[in-house]
Amino acid sequence: MIAIDEDGLRSQRFAPAAPHGCVFEYVYLARPDTTIAGRGVHEARVEMGRTLAREHPVEADMVMPTPESGTPAAIGYAQESGIPYGQGLVKNSYVGRTFIAPSQTIRQLGIRLKLNPLREVIKGKRLVVVDDTIVRGNTQRALVRMLREAGAAEVHVRISAPPVQWPCFFGIDFPTRAELIATGLAVEEVCTSIGADSLGYISEEGMVAATRQPPERLCTACFTGVYPVAMPEDGRLGKGVLELELPLGGGGRGGGGDSDPRAVGERHPHRQAPLVDVPVLDVDGVPTSAGGGAAEAVLRP
Amino acid sequence: MFGVWAPGEDVAKLTYYGLYALQHRGQESAGIATSDGKRLLVYKDMGLVSQVFDERSLASLTGHLAVGHCRYSTTGGSTWENAQPTLDGHDGSTVALAHNGNLINAADLRDLVAGHRVEGHRGEIARATPPTPRWSPPS
Ligand code: SF4
Fold it and tell me: How far apart are CA B64 and CA B56, in angstroms?
């Protein structure tokens, strides 16, 4: 615990520390100019790209990122493979959250609102496209099609994280397992689904090694299903857990005596978080405001 | 999250630029709480940091200490009520709280807290936080 006041800054330990830092910070979440536990995030991502090139080599003419998040790993892939690095896509960084719900016509533009191909760069080339994760697969599918339409001869997709197969209960709002493309499909099937010529994910070991953290100090649950702490039972987890009627199960007396924590490291059978809102999505697929739907209407003051 | 203790500085603006640098951590809502040690002010709304604040709202946030938050919702819907910092307390003391991450035993904590509260508050933090934590800073 850190306190900052007129007496300055000081810290106090109030419980033994058993940190399991989020490996996804190194893959995607953190700003690249961050250093976490002594490891620069940009450098870790470049290293993941190098590892990816060793684990999944391919003959190609150009390595390009999905901007911005795929850039460091693409640089690493290019360095290790010797294939030239290039910029085949331009990103509009200002689309962001407009707070204006797109009309159906605009929604159909899909990723074109954000990403546009540079035809002269792409035409006739065999491309290695490096991205950090595949979640639902919709973005990559649209991207591969867009690159082919722009004249790419081949599109090889390389991902600098292993397949995301499990929900995160610690601060990432991944879709439910049913919506994660990698839960039901093998790598070749995902490859077919997104329409790529080949697909390669970095190994879990490769990703962890690139962070230079001891594996036991990291959480990798969304990739492995092994959670670093005992998880509450289904129904006492998820985004809507505090918005169901009080009390949820403890009878209001506290202590949560009827919860049944699973052992540390055990796979959690959770499949579907309680669905609270079905919000209007903007062009990024982000809710434009407080969600709608009857469930949430109950919660409004 | 961003926090600052800086007598003589415009802490609201420091916090604004702190949140601006942290915009990638959450893009659904943003808020800043400031205090002069006696009074607490909170301004929060749905949107990006740059959409929520302007010169006028920042000028109204006075004091020498501040906390700020930009939210990406993982427990509790993306609503104004759940935007942070949250403000709560009881007669005599008030706390503005900015919090990151999930408490995975939130449901248990909520049940525990429900037994202590006069009336239930809606919202992830309000319902998972005991009324005004009484904590003396280590010296
Ligand atoms: S499950 Fe663990 S590794 Fe995955 S995003 Fe959540 S905290 Fe990070």
Answer: 18
Pick among A9, A27, A243, A244 to test the B interface (most B CBs inside 10 A): A243
Angle at A135 between CA A66 and CA A21, to 5 degrees: 90
Which range of residues forms the domain containing residue A26? 21-223
Using one digit for the tens of pLDDT, what is the confidence trace for B28-69?
899 999 999 899 999 999 989 999 999 999 999 999 999 999
The response to whether residue A69 sits with its C-beta less than 6 Å from ligand 1 reads: no
Q: What is the pLDDT of residues B54-111, one digit of tens each?
A: 999 999 999 999 999 999 888 778 888 889 998 888 777 888 999 888 888 878 887 8
Interchain CB distance below 8 Å, A242 and B81: no
Indicate if ligand 1 lies below 6 Å from the C-beta of A24: yes
B62, B39 in Cβ contact below 8 A? no
**Which pair of tokens denotes residue B61?**
């946030």
For ligand 1, whether the C-beta of A220 sits within 6 Å is yes
Question: Sign of the C-alpha dihedral, residues B22, B25, B30, B36?
Answer: negative
Inside any domain, residue B95: yes
Please tell me the total count of domains within chain A: 1
Tell me: the pLDDT tens digits for A156-179? 999 999 999 998 888 887 777 888
Residues A97, B48 contacting (CB under 8 angstroms):
yes
Residue A289 domain-assigned (yes or no): no
SS3 A267: strand
Give the pTM: 0.78
Ligand 1 centroid to residue A288 C-alpha, Å: 25
How many folded domains does chain B comprise? 1
Confirm or reject: Cβ of A242 under 6 Å from ligand 1: no
Residue numbers in A near B128 (CB within 8 A) = 242
Q: Which of A171, A250, A279 sits opposite B111 (nearest CB)?
A: A250
- Please indicate, yes or no, if residue B131 is contained in any of the structural domains: no
CATH value at residue A177: 3.40.50.2020
Cross-chain CB nearest to B115 (options A253, A286, A299): A253
Q: Is A4 on the interface with B (CB under 8 A)?
A: yes
- Written as one letter, the residue type at A156 is H
Q: Do A4 and B100 touch (CB under 8 A)?
A: no
Rounded-to-integer distance, Cα A67 and Cα B133, Å: 44
- Judge whether B125 lies within some domain: no
Domain region containing B53: 2-102
Instruction: Specify if B118 maps to a domain.
Output: no
Predicted-complex ipTM score: 0.75
- Residue B96: which CATH number? 3.60.20.10
- Does the CB of A287 have a partner CB in chain B at under 8 Å? yes
